[in-house]
User: Which sequence fits this backbone?
């Protein structure tokens, strides 16, 4: 039996389809994912075609996936996941209707009971003392214990958050709740449940919280870049200790848009203005960067994940910053690669050309 043609030398690769001339003369990009197998053959996914804007984001998204050999079935599953997480097919009348239905979670849909104008204006809403400080103290102690275990290499669920690439330096480290299921103390489990119940009730989303994790930022970690998250949802951060610096948001002289419900041309023009603002934004520069005042244990910060934002700078040595993170979306939606400035420039270049 003849051996399959070797399409790639990589364990995960994008194989373009069609002639070079045809690819140059269409706004669609046909491709498949491929993976070099241990025996030198190549497994590949089903063929698909995406808009150029969406296809340009795929390499960055793939860079955040594990660099392992995959079967055809696994490549198909990965491509379906990428299609879902990178999709921007909702900015048409029919697509907007589907998006509204798909995102109809809780009171007021994605933003729940929270004021959408504040989320689209300053970009965030802070509620002081929402979570019981005693529960925060319990979770802080548990965080210190869990991260110490992982840093010693005893456990393997430690994850980088928003590194620029799969090999990039971490801007935060995260431990997902699911990965801690068997190692959390009973007291921490109860405190976590109570904290999420308070946040969910406040937001009007019942028990729809997902992607919950303990996060830490410490001295020596990389400075986080301006970015948009890979999903469109309401995310939240609960401070677990006092005097915690808050998330920062690029400010523009207009209300932010709901990107999934905005036609493409208007969305792209708005984001062009927003990313231009991000390119020149520094703290204290005529209000171009907004943030709340310091957070204390139990304070809640909620934000729209498509706002251009970044974590605050790493704290001084000896003062790591611990937080509880979560979002109201489908499980796993916040784990995709973020949209960074360089990726945005490629998307914009493809749009205008």
Assistant:
């Amino acid at each position: 039996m003849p051996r399959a043609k070797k399409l790639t030398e990589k364990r995960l690769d994008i194989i373009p389809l069609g002639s070079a001339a045809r690819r140059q003369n269409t706004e669609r990009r046909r491709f498949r994912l491929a993976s070099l197998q241990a025996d030198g053959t190549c497994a590949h996914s089903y063929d698909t075609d995406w808009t150029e804007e969406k296809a340009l984001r795929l390499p960055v998204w793939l860079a955040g996936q594990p660099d392992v050999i995959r079967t055809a079935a696994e490549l198909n599953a990965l491509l379906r996941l990428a299609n879902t997480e990178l999709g921007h097919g909702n900015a048409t009348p029919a697509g907007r209707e589907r998006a509204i239905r798909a995102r109809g979670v809780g009171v007021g849909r994605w933003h729940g009971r929270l004021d959408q104008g504040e989320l689209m204006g300053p970009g965030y809403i802070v509620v002081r003392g929402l979570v019981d400080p005693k529960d925060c103290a319990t979770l802080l102690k548990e965080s210190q214990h869990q991260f110490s275990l992982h840093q010693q290499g005893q456990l393997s669920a430690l994850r980088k958050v928003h590194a620029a690439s799969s090999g990039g330096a971490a801007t935060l480290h995260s431990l997902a709740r699911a990965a801690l299921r068997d190692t959390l103390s009973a007291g921490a489990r109860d405190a976590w449940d109570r904290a999420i119940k308070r946040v969910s009730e406040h937001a009007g989303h019942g028990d729809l919280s997902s992607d919950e994790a303990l996060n830490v930022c410490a001295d020596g970690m990389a400075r986080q870049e301006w970015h948009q998250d890979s999903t469109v949802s309401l995310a939240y951060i609960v401070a677990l200790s006092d005097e915690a610096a808050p998330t920062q948001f690029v400010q523009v002289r207009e209300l932010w848009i709901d990107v999934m419900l905005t036609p493409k041309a208007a969305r792209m023009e708005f984001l062009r203005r927003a990313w231009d603002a991000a390119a020149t934004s520094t703290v204290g520069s005529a209000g171009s960067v907004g943030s709340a005042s310091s957070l204390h244990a139990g304070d809640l910060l909620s934000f729209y994940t498509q706002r251009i934002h970044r974590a605050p700078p790493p704290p001084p040595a000896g003062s790591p910053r611990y937080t509880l993170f979560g979002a109201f979306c489908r499980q796993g939606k916040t784990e995709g690669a973020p949209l960074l400035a360089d990726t945005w420039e490629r998307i914009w270049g493809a749009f205008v050309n």
Observations:
- The domain at 101-352 is CATH 2.60.120.620 (Jelly Rolls).
- Residues 268 and 352 are 10 Å apart (CA to CA).
- The two ends are 46 Å apart (CA to CA).
